[in-house]
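Teaching assistant here, posting this on the class forum so everyone can see the example we discussed in section. The complex has three components, and the goal was to see what a joint structure prediction looks like when all of them are supplied at once.
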Amino acid sequence: MSTNIDGKILPRAFYARPTISVALDLLGKSVYHSVPRGLIAGKIVEVEAYLGERDPACHAFYGKTNRTGIFWGDPGIAYIFISYGIHYCLNTITEESNTAGCVLIRALEPTAGTSLMEKNRGVADLYSLADGPGKLTQALGITVAQNGVDLTKGNFLILSEDCSDCPDIVVTSRIGISKAEKEPLRFYIGGNRFVSRQNSAVEFFRDTATAIKEVFDDEAIDMSLRYH
DNA sequence: GGTGGGATTAGCT
DNA sequence: GCTAATCCCACCA
């Protein structure tokens, strides 16, 4: 079992790329948390990109502080913060060291340990277990205690998956933020029922490459730097 | 089915 | 002191 998993762990190089590339390529991958009572896992179906110092919605926008120093450290590290005093949000640090950026994981399709997830969440509806950033951390049993954990080793990992089911990506504006809220930086798997806030008023963009090019200069993303 | 308010904590714009 | 990358429930329709 463990050797099987070792071969699937996304290496640090996966994360050491432009944030938007990492965000797009995280769709369809798996978040994996091994806990004493069993294994909890889910497929990533929704993410948002936060572009570091250039992005007013990113915690790194105002520079290095005690909390945000992690942004300039190694990629592939978990950045977890408390949202609204109650919920935890899970991010992965991206870009090379000394460049800030992260991807917020917003929704998972449960694939293993659903009974544990139900217990952690206190609900039994499969579609409500991890269809939001606060819900998925609760379902996985993740808290700020895991802030700074390395996602390339240990019991909390992100794994590659076969791409036979390569996602059809939908691009929209981000959710729940008050700055830079119109940028095309939320990505999800089209038609997937586990995506959060299906009824939210978001702006839809035609396709990823076009939307990104229209809003950012070409330094923001090099579409050739995809990784599967 | 849609909306509005409250919960609760860390960081500081 | 104020704000926030959320969620849930009560209430209205």
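For the discussion questions: Chain A has a mean pLDDT of 92. Residues 48, 50, 57-59, 81-87, 89, 91, 104, 106, 132-135, 174-178 of chain A lie near DNA strand C (CB under 10 Å from a C1'). Think about how each of these relates to the inputs above.
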